[in-house]
């Protein structure tokens, strides 16, 4: 697939990027270079390659999924500067 100047102008317009008429050939050439790189990536055989989280083999840290009700409302509100009826009280900012 090849990108010409008119297609590059359409892409720039869709991206809301102002591109001068004289810069369109260079932009089209850059788009073609990106598409060429993508075509190279499509040629790579990735059959049997597992997705990676990092370049170093590691497992994600996981915690046990335990249901709890929290039940720490009093403990949390104890540090609040102003708490009323079980909620944080904040100054009114909208009149």
Which class do the helix and strand fractions yield?
Answer: mainly alpha
| Nearest-integer average pLDDT | 89
Strand content: under 5%
Element-level helix/strand string: HHHEE
Q: What profile does the largest beta sheet have?
A: 2 strands, antiparallel
Kindly list the characteristics that best describe this protein.
mainly alpha, 36% helix, single chain, two-stranded antiparallel sheet, flat, nucleotide-binding, transferase activity, 95 residues, 2 strands, Aspartyl/glutamyl-tRNA(Asn/Gln) amidotransferase subunit C, glutaminyl-tRNA synthase (glutamine-hydrolyzing) activity
Describe this structure in words.
The chain starts with a helix and ends in a 7-residue tail after the last strand. By secondary structure, the chain is mainly α. It has three helices and two strands, in the order H-H-H-E-E. The chain has helices at 5-14, 24-42, 73-77, and strands at residues 83-84, 87-88. It is flat and about 65 Å long. The mean pLDDT is 89. GO terms for molecular function: asparaginyl-tRNA synthase (glutamine-hydrolyzing) activity; ATP binding; glutaminyl-tRNA synthase (glutamine-hydrolyzing) activity; transferase activity.
Put the structure in a nutshell.
The protein has 95 residues and is mainly alpha-helical. The protein has helices at residues 5-14, 24-42, 73-77; strands at 83-84, 87-88.
Question: Helices and strands in order, then pairings?
Answer:
Layout (H helix, E strand, L loop, with lengths): L4 H10 L9 H19 L30 H5 L5 E2 L2 E2 L7
Antiparallel strand pairs: 1-2
Helix pairs in contact: 1-2
Family: Belongs to the GatC family.
Keywords: ATP-binding, Ligase, Nucleotide-binding, Protein biosynthesis, Transferase
GO molecular function, one term: asparaginyl-tRNA synthase (glutamine-hydrolyzing) activity
